Amino acid sequence: MSLPPHPLTRSVARPVARPVARLAHAWSVALQQRARRNAMVALTACTRRRAEREEVAAFLADRARARRTPAPLGSVSLHA
Question: What pTM value is reported for the model?
Answer without folding.
Answer: 0.54
